[in-house]
Amino acid sequence: MVDVGDDAPDFAASLVTDDIEPFRLADRVGDGPIVLAFFPAAFSSTCTDEMRTIRDEFDRFPEACTVLGVSTDLPHALAAYREEYDLPFGLVADPDHRAIEAYDAIADFDHYGVDTVARRSVFVIDADGTVAYRWLADEHGQEPDYAAVADAASEVVVPN
Fold first, then answer.
1. Are residues 42 and 78 in contact, defined by beta-carbon separation less than 8 angstroms?
2. Across the 160 residues of the chain, what is the mean pLDDT of every consecutive 10-residue run?
3. What is the distance of C-alpha 35 from the center of its chain?
4. How far apart are CA 50 and CA 23, in angstroms?
5. Residue 73 contacts by C-beta under 8 Å, 6 or more apart in sequence?
6. Which residues have a Cβ under 8 Å from the Cβ of 93 and sit 6 or more positions away?
7. Alpha helices for 35-141 (secondary structure H)
């Protein structure tokens, strides 16, 4: 289990912004804090509430902060999701489960017939690549303390 003080595990996936492009976490470390907000499924109710809350509170994050939503959805589904909800941050498509496995952020939706999705969780990574904050949902439908996440990102030292 990845915990505060651990080196942030690297992973490769697809990044959905205005385009879809290859993404490697290690390429982003060093630019400022990174917030990884893992969520189970685009277009589901709690996930949409979470992503819209992050959108609505986006200005609480430091300017140098990279905020990324991470799910096991396919890139084109995340592109439609990002557009529909006007999300100002990128979404990471992790259909191969590399990110969720690296962060042990795995849940199942057996009642929906889906074996593996992202467990709702948030990690803040500092500019040195160290996990500075971790939150994991204990129950279905639980959302993070958004103020605590923004505060954790603000407390991370931003390089000059």
1. yes
2. 94 97 95 93 91 93 93 97 97 96 85 78 95 90 89 77
3. 6
4. 23
5. 41, 42, 81, 93, 95
6. 13, 14, 15, 16, 20, 71, 72, 73, 74, 75, 77, 78
7. 45-56, 75-84, 98-102
d(CA 149, CA 33): 11
Going from the N-terminus, what domains does the chain have, and what CATH number goes with each? Answer: 12-155 (3.40.30.10)
Alpha carbon 131 to its chain centroid, in Å, reads: 13
| Catalytic (active-site) positions | 47
- Is there a contact between 35 and 4 (Cβ–Cβ < 8 Å)? no
Which pLDDT value is given to residue 101? 95
Would the pTM of this model clear 0.85, i.e. be above it?
A: yes
Q: Which amino acid is at 78?
A: L
